[in-house]
Amino acid sequence: MFVLPFSNIRKEDIAGTGGKGANLGELVAAGLPVPDGFVIDTVAYSHFVAASAIQAPLLALAAQVRADDPASVEKISLQIQALFHVGALPDDLAAAIRAAYEALPAQ
């Protein structure tokens, strides 16, 4: 799926869309004035992580975090962020995001 328009999201979709995405879907369903938009779902996240082969390094870094050492949290979070920056966006995911964006009405 990768991309879901707000109009296709409900509160039951929170696991795949996050709280903000689910809330936006509920607002649209209630008829409130929400600008057109979409959510990139957790399937897309998993697809990116798998295609970039960063799952193992992510888990290894996360295991090093020590809750009693805020400096370690900061250090590890920067290393995790770097993994995402070098990851490659799969073509099918990029195409889905591009198509969703291009389908938005001009503002």
Short characterization:
This protein has 107 residues and is mostly helical. It has helices spanning 14-29, 42-52, 55-63, 70-86, 91-103; strands at residues 3-5, 38-40.
Kindly describe this structure.
There is one protein chain. The protein has 107 residues and is mainly alpha-helical. The protein has five helices and two strands, in the order E-H-E-H-H-H-H. It has helices at residues 14-29, 42-52, 55-63, 70-86, 91-103, and strands spanning 3-5, 38-40. Strands 1-2 form a two-stranded antiparallel ribbon. Helix 3 runs antiparallel to helix 4 (70-86). The radius of gyration is 17 Å and the shape is globular. The two termini are 25 Å apart. The mean pLDDT is 95.
Could you estimate the helical fraction of the residues in percent?
55-70%
Beta-strand residue fraction: 5-15%
Going by helix content, strand content and strand pairing, the class is: mainly alpha
Question: What is the average per-residue confidence, as pLDDT, rounded to a whole number?
Answer: 95
Radius of gyration: 17 Å
**Biggest sheet: strand arrangement:** 1-2
Order of helices and strands: EHEHHHH
| SS summary, helix count | 5
Principal-axes geometry comes out as: globular
How would you characterize the largest beta sheet?
A: 2 strands, antiparallel
- Low-pLDDT stretches are none
How many DSSP E strands?
2
Instruction: Report the end-to-end length measured between terminal Cα atoms.
Output: 25 Å
